[in-house]
Amino acid sequence: MDKLRIFSKTEMTKKEASKEAYEYVKNSLMEEDEQNYIRASVLKDLFDCGACVMNVAQVFLKGIILPKTDREFGMNEELTLADLLEIEDRIFHREKRIVPENAKENSEAACRIAADEYKGNLIVDVRDEESFLQGHLQGAINIPLEKIRINPHIIGNDKYEPVLFVCARGIKSSIAAEYAISAGYMNVFYGSI
Hints:
By secondary structure, the chain is an alpha/beta fold. It is built from 6 helices and 7 strands.
């Protein structure tokens, strides 16, 4: 029977395994952290455990522990001895790590688009509230650029839903789009009204 070298138990949850795997990779193998760990926010359950965010983000981004689906890590999913041995194999053999496509660096740029060409449902007007109330695109919501700068996740939880940012000339909307991309949003557009 194969013996575990890293994990303290032969059965544990992904959340528990993430903690032990991350600590081993960081402290024993001395691997640097993935710097842009916000890319892990494509996982809807990333923040389900406030204490686990860094552990889960790092093992996900490094391809050590695979997510349950492309959008969910599966924090409480039970791992068997066989699962843990596979994870250990990926820890010791980097070439066996499987980095999911949605965890890779997003090199996509936001696309400028005319508002009437946009086919999605989410339209975010980044102008101030007063300008928004004077007139805006039908169905648009108002989230001023300053709020997006402070917390780009205010846009919403679905990182795959197309989002169009608009403003008067397209300058603020392009900045908002860049904030969204850096926060892990995948289908980002900007334009003017």
